[in-house]
Specification:
139 residues; seven-stranded mixed β-sheet
Length: 139
């Protein structure tokens, strides 16, 4: 599936739409450069799951947990220096549990993806404007 977003709001709305389809045990790998829309998508996704608070990228915490229709585990693995550090996060409990996992910068930990991973790639395309994003969802 390919989605074209012309604004941050549209990116958030797309995240909310996908969240409506999420089931326990879902895993979403968000891949894209800095500023490509991963966190905007995650905000909308959280809202779509009924998370009441605002969310931000957990760059320094690595993981934030939220309560909604399903538990949401929002990872940002940008600061993971070595793959061995993933073991310190207790990722298996989250990746193979009953909640929903969103991982920003997921391309850094491809070896850890569960078999049901949904890969979502974000790309900025400047020729169509600063806010244009192509979002590709691969199952």
């Amino acid at each position: 599936m390919i989605f074209m977003s012309y604004s941050q709001r549209e990116t958030e709305e797309f995240g909310a739409t996908l969240a409506a389809q999420a089931v326990g045990g879902s895993f979403y790998a968000l891949i894209g450069d800095l500023g490509a829309g991963k966190t905007a998508f995650a905000r909308g996704f959280a809202r779509g799951l009924g998370v009441a608070c605002d969310i931000s990228s957990p760059t320094f915490a690595i993981i934030n947990e939220y309560s909604g229709r399903l538990p949401l585990y929002h990872f940002d693995v940008y600061r993971i220096g070595h793959l061995e550090e993933m073991g310190d996060t207790g990722y298996e409990e989250y990746f193979y549990g009953g909640g929903v996992v969103l991982v920003e910068w997921a391309d850094l930990i491809r070896d850890f993806f569960p078999p049901n991973a949904v890969i979502i790639e974000f790309e900025r395309i400047a020729e169509f404007g600063d806010d244009f994003r192509r979002i590709v969802v691969k199952k």
